[in-house]
Amino acid sequence: MYKTLIRPILFKFDPEEVHYYTFSMLKKFPFLAKIFLPKPIEDKRLEREVFGLKFKNPVGLAAGFDKDAKMFNELFDLGFGFVEIGTLTPKAQEGNPKKRLFRLQEDSAIINRMGFNNGGVDAAVKRLRKNRNVLIGGNIGKNKITTNEEAVNDYIICFEKLFPVVDYFVVNVSSPNTPNLRELQDKEPLTKLLSNLQQLNIKKEKAKPILLKIAPDLTDTQLLDIIDIVKETQIAGVIATNTTISRENLLSENKSETGGLSGKPLTKRSTEVIRFLSEKSGKAFPIIGVGGIHTAEDALEKLEAGASLVQLYTGFIYEGPQLIRDINQKLLKNYN
Protein backbone atom coordinates (compact mmCIF):
# COMPACT_ATOMS: atom_id res chain seq x y z
CA MET A 1 0.00 0.00 0.00
CA TYR A 2 2.86 2.39 0.78
CA LYS A 3 4.39 2.31 -2.72
CA THR A 4 1.09 2.29 -4.61
CA LEU A 5 -0.97 4.73 -2.54
CA ILE A 6 0.99 6.61 0.12
CA ARG A 7 4.31 7.31 -1.61
CA PRO A 8 2.80 8.85 -4.80
CA ILE A 9 0.95 11.35 -2.62
CA LEU A 10 3.93 12.17 -0.42
CA PHE A 11 6.23 12.62 -3.42
CA LYS A 12 4.00 15.40 -4.79
CA PHE A 13 5.23 17.70 -2.01
CA ASP A 14 8.51 19.26 -0.99
CA PRO A 15 10.59 16.46 0.60
CA GLU A 16 11.54 18.35 3.75
CA GLU A 17 8.05 19.71 4.39
CA VAL A 18 6.38 16.32 3.85
CA HIS A 19 8.93 14.70 6.16
CA TYR A 20 7.80 16.81 9.10
CA TYR A 21 4.14 16.52 8.10
CA THR A 22 4.41 12.73 8.17
CA PHE A 23 6.06 12.96 11.58
CA SER A 24 3.18 15.02 12.95
CA MET A 25 0.57 12.62 11.56
CA LEU A 26 2.25 9.56 13.08
CA LYS A 27 2.58 11.39 16.39
CA LYS A 28 -1.04 12.54 16.51
CA PHE A 29 -2.62 9.42 15.00
CA PRO A 30 -0.39 6.41 15.78
CA PHE A 31 -3.22 4.02 14.87
CA LEU A 32 -2.75 5.00 11.20
CA ALA A 33 0.46 2.98 11.10
CA LYS A 34 -1.41 -0.13 12.26
CA ILE A 35 -4.07 0.36 9.59
CA PHE A 36 -1.98 1.25 6.55
CA LEU A 37 1.46 -0.22 7.23
CA PRO A 38 2.65 -3.84 7.46
CA LYS A 39 2.81 -5.59 10.81
CA PRO A 40 6.39 -5.84 12.14
CA ILE A 41 8.01 -9.27 12.49
CA GLU A 42 8.83 -10.42 16.00
CA ASP A 43 11.06 -13.49 16.16
CA LYS A 44 13.78 -14.46 18.63
CA ARG A 45 15.90 -15.84 15.78
CA LEU A 46 16.43 -12.29 14.49
CA GLU A 47 18.11 -11.12 17.68
CA ARG A 48 21.75 -10.04 17.46
CA GLU A 49 24.30 -9.30 20.14
CA VAL A 50 26.84 -6.77 18.86
CA PHE A 51 29.37 -4.74 20.87
CA GLY A 52 27.69 -5.93 24.04
CA LEU A 53 24.18 -4.81 23.11
CA LYS A 54 21.19 -6.98 22.27
CA PHE A 55 19.27 -5.92 19.14
CA LYS A 56 15.81 -7.41 18.55
CA ASN A 57 16.63 -7.59 14.84
CA PRO A 58 19.56 -6.36 12.71
CA VAL A 59 17.67 -3.65 10.78
CA GLY A 60 18.06 -0.14 12.16
CA LEU A 61 17.10 3.38 11.16
CA ALA A 62 20.10 5.51 10.20
CA ALA A 63 20.82 8.95 11.61
CA GLY A 64 19.31 11.94 9.86
CA PHE A 65 15.72 10.74 9.82
CA ASP A 66 14.90 11.52 13.44
CA LYS A 67 17.48 14.21 14.07
CA ASP A 68 15.92 15.65 17.21
CA ALA A 69 14.71 12.42 18.82
CA LYS A 70 11.05 13.29 18.37
CA MET A 71 9.78 10.05 16.83
CA PHE A 72 12.05 7.22 17.98
CA ASN A 73 9.27 5.38 19.83
CA GLU A 74 6.89 5.50 16.87
CA LEU A 75 9.63 4.57 14.39
CA PHE A 76 10.72 1.64 16.53
CA ASP A 77 7.13 0.39 16.48
CA LEU A 78 7.36 0.10 12.66
CA GLY A 79 9.71 -2.85 13.14
CA PHE A 80 13.21 -1.44 13.42
CA GLY A 81 15.63 -3.21 15.71
CA PHE A 82 17.22 0.07 16.76
CA VAL A 83 16.99 3.79 16.00
CA GLU A 84 19.89 6.21 15.61
CA ILE A 85 19.04 9.82 16.38
CA GLY A 86 20.96 12.95 15.38
CA THR A 87 23.27 14.27 14.19
CA LEU A 88 23.12 16.42 17.34
CA THR A 89 25.33 19.40 18.13
CA PRO A 90 25.88 21.23 21.45
CA LYS A 91 23.91 24.28 20.37
CA ALA A 92 20.80 24.43 18.23
CA GLN A 93 21.44 25.50 14.65
CA GLU A 94 19.29 26.15 11.59
CA GLY A 95 21.50 24.30 9.14
CA ASN A 96 21.92 25.38 5.55
CA PRO A 97 19.42 27.60 3.71
CA LYS A 98 16.38 25.92 2.16
CA LYS A 99 15.80 24.33 -0.33
CA ARG A 100 18.29 21.71 0.81
CA LEU A 101 16.70 18.29 0.24
CA PHE A 102 16.14 16.87 -3.25
CA ARG A 103 14.63 13.67 -4.60
CA LEU A 104 16.27 11.98 -7.59
CA GLN A 105 13.42 9.65 -8.47
CA GLU A 106 14.94 8.26 -11.67
CA ASP A 107 17.93 7.17 -9.58
CA SER A 108 16.02 6.15 -6.42
CA ALA A 109 18.23 8.59 -4.57
CA ILE A 110 18.29 11.73 -2.46
CA ILE A 111 20.69 14.65 -2.25
CA ASN A 112 20.77 16.58 0.99
CA ARG A 113 22.75 19.54 2.22
CA MET A 114 20.92 19.92 5.51
CA GLY A 115 23.99 21.02 7.47
CA PHE A 116 23.34 19.40 10.89
CA ASN A 117 20.08 21.28 11.43
CA ASN A 118 18.90 20.34 14.92
CA GLY A 119 17.46 21.78 18.11
CA GLY A 120 20.56 21.09 20.18
CA VAL A 121 21.53 18.22 22.43
CA ASP A 122 19.73 19.45 25.57
CA ALA A 123 16.28 19.38 23.93
CA ALA A 124 16.92 15.87 22.58
CA VAL A 125 17.99 14.59 25.99
CA LYS A 126 14.64 15.66 27.50
CA ARG A 127 12.76 13.66 24.86
CA LEU A 128 15.00 10.63 25.20
CA ARG A 129 14.07 10.38 28.87
CA LYS A 130 10.64 9.26 27.60
CA ASN A 131 12.14 6.25 25.84
CA ARG A 132 9.86 3.18 25.86
CA ASN A 133 12.70 0.65 25.76
CA VAL A 134 14.01 1.55 22.28
CA LEU A 135 17.67 0.75 21.63
CA ILE A 136 19.06 4.19 20.74
CA GLY A 137 22.22 5.31 19.00
CA GLY A 138 23.36 8.89 19.52
CA ASN A 139 25.00 10.44 16.47
CA ILE A 140 27.09 13.48 17.44
CA GLY A 141 28.79 16.30 15.55
CA LYS A 142 30.12 19.81 15.89
CA ASN A 143 28.43 23.16 15.41
CA LYS A 144 29.15 24.95 12.15
CA ILE A 145 30.75 27.92 13.93
CA THR A 146 33.14 25.65 15.86
CA THR A 147 36.57 25.40 14.27
CA ASN A 148 38.15 22.02 13.64
CA GLU A 149 40.80 22.88 16.21
CA GLU A 150 38.07 23.21 18.86
CA ALA A 151 35.84 20.42 17.53
CA VAL A 152 36.82 17.93 20.24
CA ASN A 153 35.02 20.08 22.82
CA ASP A 154 31.73 19.93 20.89
CA TYR A 155 31.88 16.15 20.66
CA ILE A 156 32.70 15.88 24.36
CA ILE A 157 29.73 18.07 25.31
CA CYS A 158 27.34 15.90 23.28
CA PHE A 159 28.91 12.72 24.62
CA GLU A 160 28.56 13.73 28.25
CA LYS A 161 24.99 14.98 27.94
CA LEU A 162 23.73 12.00 25.92
CA PHE A 163 25.55 9.36 27.92
CA PRO A 164 22.66 8.57 30.33
CA VAL A 165 20.04 8.28 27.57
CA VAL A 166 21.62 6.44 24.61
CA ASP A 167 22.97 2.90 24.19
CA TYR A 168 25.82 3.65 21.78
CA PHE A 169 27.51 6.65 20.18
CA VAL A 170 28.38 7.53 16.60
CA VAL A 171 31.05 10.10 15.85
CA ASN A 172 30.09 11.85 12.62
CA VAL A 173 33.06 13.43 10.85
CA SER A 174 31.96 12.36 7.38
CA SER A 175 29.04 14.62 6.45
CA PRO A 176 29.90 16.70 3.37
CA ASN A 177 27.50 19.47 4.42
CA THR A 178 29.44 21.14 7.24
CA PRO A 179 32.45 23.12 5.94
CA ASN A 180 35.79 21.35 6.53
CA LEU A 181 34.20 18.62 8.67
CA ARG A 182 35.64 15.80 6.56
CA GLU A 183 39.15 17.06 7.32
CA LEU A 184 38.61 15.51 10.76
CA GLN A 185 38.79 12.10 9.05
CA ASP A 186 42.54 12.60 8.57
CA LYS A 187 44.57 10.28 10.77
CA GLU A 188 45.99 12.75 13.29
CA PRO A 189 42.85 14.79 14.16
CA LEU A 190 40.64 11.70 14.10
CA THR A 191 42.90 9.76 16.44
CA LYS A 192 42.95 12.73 18.81
CA LEU A 193 39.16 13.08 18.75
CA LEU A 194 38.40 9.40 19.31
CA SER A 195 41.09 9.03 21.96
CA ASN A 196 39.63 11.91 23.95
CA LEU A 197 36.14 10.42 23.82
CA GLN A 198 37.35 6.94 24.65
CA GLN A 199 39.32 8.20 27.64
CA LEU A 200 36.13 9.74 29.02
CA ASN A 201 34.20 6.60 28.16
CA ILE A 202 36.39 4.14 30.05
CA LYS A 203 36.21 6.30 33.17
CA LYS A 204 32.45 5.75 33.34
CA GLU A 205 30.99 3.09 35.60
CA LYS A 206 29.99 1.22 32.46
CA ALA A 207 31.48 2.31 29.14
CA LYS A 208 29.25 2.51 26.06
CA PRO A 209 30.17 1.55 22.49
CA ILE A 210 31.62 4.37 20.37
CA LEU A 211 31.45 3.95 16.59
CA LEU A 212 32.92 6.01 13.78
CA LYS A 213 30.84 6.88 10.72
CA ILE A 214 32.97 7.16 7.59
CA ALA A 215 32.50 8.48 4.07
CA PRO A 216 32.31 6.19 1.03
CA ASP A 217 34.74 8.48 -0.78
CA LEU A 218 37.81 7.41 1.21
CA THR A 219 40.69 5.79 -0.67
CA ASP A 220 42.04 2.35 0.20
CA THR A 221 44.96 4.02 1.96
CA GLN A 222 42.58 6.10 4.05
CA LEU A 223 40.51 3.02 4.86
CA LEU A 224 43.65 1.27 6.08
CA ASP A 225 44.24 4.31 8.28
CA ILE A 226 40.71 3.89 9.66
CA ILE A 227 41.50 0.28 10.61
CA ASP A 228 44.65 1.43 12.41
CA ILE A 229 42.75 4.19 14.22
CA VAL A 230 39.99 1.83 15.39
CA LYS A 231 42.61 -0.55 16.78
CA GLU A 232 44.67 2.21 18.38
CA THR A 233 41.75 4.00 20.05
CA GLN A 234 39.89 0.75 20.81
CA ILE A 235 36.50 2.14 19.80
CA ALA A 236 33.76 -0.43 19.25
CA GLY A 237 33.34 -0.31 15.49
CA VAL A 238 32.52 1.53 12.27
CA ILE A 239 29.42 2.63 10.37
CA ALA A 240 30.00 2.34 6.62
CA THR A 241 28.98 4.56 4.97
CA ASN A 242 27.71 8.13 5.00
CA THR A 243 26.57 9.95 1.85
CA THR A 244 28.83 10.44 -1.16
CA ILE A 245 29.91 13.52 -3.10
CA SER A 246 30.24 11.41 -6.26
CA ARG A 247 27.76 12.04 -9.08
CA GLU A 248 28.59 9.20 -11.47
CA ASN A 249 25.94 7.81 -13.84
CA LEU A 250 22.98 9.80 -12.49
CA LEU A 251 19.87 10.43 -14.60
CA SER A 252 17.80 12.90 -12.57
CA GLU A 253 17.75 16.63 -13.25
CA ASN A 254 18.64 17.32 -9.62
CA LYS A 255 21.98 15.54 -9.98
CA SER A 256 23.90 18.85 -10.08
CA GLU A 257 22.69 19.91 -6.62
CA THR A 258 25.45 20.13 -4.03
CA GLY A 259 25.31 17.93 -0.96
CA GLY A 260 25.55 14.29 0.00
CA LEU A 261 24.03 11.67 -2.28
CA SER A 262 22.29 8.63 -0.77
CA GLY A 263 20.22 5.80 -2.18
CA LYS A 264 20.72 3.19 -4.91
CA PRO A 265 23.77 4.85 -6.52
CA LEU A 266 25.61 4.19 -3.24
CA THR A 267 24.72 0.48 -2.95
CA LYS A 268 27.83 -0.99 -4.56
CA ARG A 269 30.39 1.38 -3.06
CA SER A 270 29.17 1.08 0.51
CA THR A 271 29.29 -2.71 0.23
CA GLU A 272 32.83 -2.49 -1.18
CA VAL A 273 33.92 -0.41 1.82
CA ILE A 274 32.34 -2.90 4.24
CA ARG A 275 34.10 -5.83 2.57
CA PHE A 276 37.45 -4.00 2.50
CA LEU A 277 37.30 -3.08 6.18
CA SER A 278 36.17 -6.57 7.20
CA GLU A 279 38.80 -8.43 5.18
CA LYS A 280 41.75 -6.11 5.77
CA SER A 281 41.09 -5.93 9.52
CA GLY A 282 40.56 -9.67 9.86
CA LYS A 283 37.04 -8.96 11.13
CA ALA A 284 38.62 -7.18 14.09
CA PHE A 285 35.58 -5.00 14.84
CA PRO A 286 31.84 -4.88 14.09
CA ILE A 287 30.55 -2.87 11.12
CA ILE A 288 27.08 -1.40 10.65
CA GLY A 289 26.33 -1.35 6.94
CA VAL A 290 24.35 1.51 5.47
CA GLY A 291 24.01 2.96 1.98
CA GLY A 292 21.71 2.04 -0.87
CA ILE A 293 19.68 -0.71 0.80
CA HIS A 294 16.45 -0.85 -1.20
CA THR A 295 15.79 -4.62 -1.17
CA ALA A 296 16.28 -7.55 1.17
CA GLU A 297 19.02 -8.75 -1.16
CA ASP A 298 20.90 -5.45 -0.74
CA ALA A 299 20.85 -5.94 3.03
CA LEU A 300 22.02 -9.55 2.82
CA GLU A 301 24.90 -8.54 0.55
CA LYS A 302 26.12 -6.13 3.22
CA LEU A 303 25.77 -8.73 5.95
CA GLU A 304 27.65 -11.27 3.83
CA ALA A 305 30.34 -8.65 3.09
CA GLY A 306 31.05 -8.34 6.80
CA ALA A 307 28.39 -6.13 8.37
CA SER A 308 26.90 -7.24 11.69
CA LEU A 309 23.89 -4.91 11.41
CA VAL A 310 22.37 -2.72 8.69
CA GLN A 311 20.61 0.64 8.64
CA LEU A 312 18.06 2.19 6.30
CA TYR A 313 17.40 5.78 5.32
CA THR A 314 16.74 6.51 1.64
CA GLY A 315 15.54 2.96 1.01
CA PHE A 316 13.04 3.41 3.82
CA ILE A 317 11.71 6.58 2.15
CA TYR A 318 11.38 4.94 -1.27
CA GLU A 319 10.26 1.44 -0.22
CA GLY A 320 8.46 2.13 3.07
CA PRO A 321 8.26 -0.01 6.23
CA GLN A 322 7.67 -3.12 4.10
CA LEU A 323 11.43 -3.09 3.47
CA ILE A 324 12.12 -3.77 7.17
CA ARG A 325 9.75 -6.73 7.05
CA ASP A 326 11.21 -8.02 3.75
CA ILE A 327 14.75 -8.05 5.14
CA ASN A 328 13.75 -9.85 8.31
CA GLN A 329 11.63 -12.34 6.38
CA LYS A 330 14.56 -13.08 4.08
CA LEU A 331 16.80 -13.70 7.08
CA LEU A 332 14.28 -16.06 8.63
CA LYS A 333 13.99 -18.03 5.38
CA ASN A 334 17.76 -18.49 5.41
CA TYR A 335 17.49 -20.05 8.87
CA ASN A 336 15.06 -22.72 7.67
Describe the structure.
- The structure is a single chain.
- The chain has 336 residues and is α/β, with parallel strands linked by helices.
- The chain has a single domain (2-335), classed as TIM Barrel, CATH 3.20.20.
- Helices cover 38% and strands 16% of the residues.
- The protein contains 12 helices and 13 strands.
- The chain has helices at residues 2-10, 15-28, 31-36, 72-76, 121-128, 151-162, 187-202, 220-233, 267-281, 296-305, 314-319, 322-335; strands at residues 48-50, 53-55, 59-61, 82-88, 101-104, 109-112, 136-140, 168-172, 210-214, 237-240, 260-263, 287-290, 309-312.
- It has an 8-stranded parallel β-barrel with strand order 3-4-7-8-9-10-12-13, surrounded by 5 helices. It has a 3-stranded antiparallel sheet with strand order 5-6-11. The chain has a two-stranded antiparallel sheet with strand order 1-2.
- Strand 7, helix 6 and strand 8 form a beta-alpha-beta unit.
- The protein is globular and about 50 Å long.
- The model has no long low-confidence stretch (mean pLDDT 95).
